[in-house]
Design a protein that fits this description.
Blueprint (H helix, E strand, L loop, with lengths): L1 H12 L10 H8 L10 E5 L4 H12 L5 E4 L11 E3 L2 E2 L2 H20 L6 H15 L4 E5 L17 E4 L14 H8 L9 E3 L4 H13 L4 E3 L5 E6 L4 E5 L2 E6 L5 H15 L8 H9 L8 E5 L2 E5 L4 H10 L8 E5 L7 H11 L2 E4 L11 H9 L5 E3 L3 H11 L5 E5 L2 H13 L1
Parallel strand pairs: 1-5, 1-6, 2-5, 6-7, 7-8, 13-17, 14-15, 14-17, 15-16
Antiparallel strand pairs: 2-3, 3-4, 9-10, 10-11, 12-13
Helix pairs in contact: 2-5, 3-8, 3-9, 4-5, 10-11
GO molecular function: ATP binding; dihydrofolate synthase activity; metal ion binding; tetrahydrofolylpolyglutamate synthase activity
Family: Belongs to the folylpolyglutamate synthase family.
Protein name: tetrahydrofolate synthase
């Protein structure tokens, strides 16, 4: 659709903005449309790693009995993937319709000094679209942080879900784990139940204090309550509390706990959304999360993963133990504001061939020469190929039948490789 690409460009250009971020701009925008975000049921999800998996577990299961909106970021191929209802993307026609609806209000607010960014506009479209479509519930993933994230304009979600917390977006969200956790705790609202991924005693107390101050009941679980039955490169089997013989096709040890967190939320809302144990079991098993420990080709075998911080990198390295392969061929790139030294060090320990490439993000991406210098601090046998397609092609030409090609370091890289392999 001709206008669609034009409006996508127009949205991206709205990020040319300076100054401290507040919720005032999106508040003004949504007030002009009578605050649709406060007229729908919202399950709000924040955290560092595991948001996408948990969102997909929840939305996929709830959609078995209800009309469910899902908002996630970043998208893999097209912006419309961020806004779906029961797995169906908002159409390009509807997307354009909503931008044309919002545009006069946005231009008026621009003139008044309340310029909404690309993500604020996307968030506003999501809330209005879900309200207009009369969804039974919206599963909404926080973009970054919590307190000042655009999605946090919702006053009273039916639940706040907080997954893992680790050091990421340091300097933006905070310089300590406590500051980052407090930022995520910003989604906790008055009286709305909070569901918490297992935390150490110190962080648990931080979230409990915030929840208590908002009269919000807090629910969590211990990893000891999750009994691992089987783990492989294509599924995980486990028991969690009264839910026996559960199975997820999302691989990796961490997915046992992401799935258990989702089950805890789903169990709480069983009556509200007419869920049975069988529906929950089916919903967890049939959930997918694009770009996270995902096999996108079997011959040659290509595994992609968007891990880009310490916790996610540890989970990736740990999860690779369940994959059977002879040599591990790595195609890697990472943004400069991520923990690239740790990622390079850990991946170097397990990689037989280290191929680096570039990411399409001029402001935050490494220049190939600079990334090569960083890798050479750890190992000399690095192959540098600027073009992402050429890099993955090179990897496939040197891979033998029992080898595994791993593409990781950034979702931007993973996105491009998935697109290339799919088109090929």
């Amino acid at each position: 659709m001709k206008n669609f690409e034009k409006y996508i460009d127009w949205m991206y250009k709205r990020d040319e903005k300076k100054g401290k971020h507040t919720l005032k701009n999106i508040q003004k925008l949504l007030e002009a449309f009578d605050n649709p975000q406060d007229k729908i049921k919202v399950i709000h999800i924040a955290g560092t790693n595991g948001k996408g998996s948990t969102c997909n577990f929840l939305s996929n299961t709830l959609s078995k009995t209800s009309k469910v909106g899902l908002f996630i970021s970043p998208f893999m191929e097209c912006m419309t993937e961020s806004i779906t209802i029961n797995g169906v993307k908002i159409s390009e026609e509807d997307f354009v319709k909503y931008i044309e609806l919002f545009k006069p209000v946005l231009e008026k607010l621009d003139a008044e000094g309340y310029k909404n960014t690309y993500f604020e506009v996307l968030t506003a479209i999501m809330y209005k679209y879900f309200y207009d479509q009369k969804v039974d519930v919206a599963v909404v993933e926080v973009g970054m942080g919590g307190t000042l994230d655009s999605t946090n304009i919702v006053k009273r979600p039916i639940a706040s879900v907080i997954v893992t917390i680790s050091m990421d977006h340091v300097g933006i969200l905070g310089n300590t784990i406590e500051e980052i956790a407090m930022n995520k705790a910003g989604i906790i609202k008055e009286g709305a139940p909070v569901f918490l991924y297992p935390k150490d005693e110190h962080l648990y107390k931080l979230f409990k204090d915030v929840a208590d101050s908002k009269h919000a009941p807090l629910y969590t679980f211990s990893k000891d309550e999750v009994k691992v039955l089987q783990i492989s490169d294509h599924e995980n089997d486990f028991d969690f509390r009264d839910y026996k013989n559960m199975r997820t096709s999302l691989v990796g040890v961490h997915q046992f706990y992401n799935a258990s967190l989702a089950i805890m939320v789903l169990d709480y809302f069983k009556e509200m959304f007419n869920l049975t144990e069988e529906i929950i079991k089916d919903g967890i098993f049939t959930s997918h999360n694009t770009g996270r420990l995902q096999i996108i080709s079997k011959s040659p075998k290509i595994l992609v993963d968007g891990s880009h911080n310490k916790e996610a990198m540890d989970a990736l390295v740990n999860s690779l133990k369940v994959f059977k392969y002879n040599h591990l061929i790595l195609v890697f790139s990472i943004l400069k504001d991520k923990d690239y030294e740790y990622a390079i060090k850990e991946l170097s320990k397990i990689t037989d061939k280290f191929i680096i490439t570039t990411i399409d993000n001029p402001e935050r991406a490494f220049k190939l020469y600079d990334l090569e210098k960083e890798v050479k601090k750890v190992r000399n046998d690095v192959v540098a190929i600027a073009d992402r397609v050429e890099a993955i092609n090179y990897a496939t030409t040197i891979a033998e039948a029992d080898d595994l090609i791993l593409v990781c370091g950034s979702l931007y890289l993973v996105r491009d490789v998935i697109k290339f392999v799919k088109n090929k």
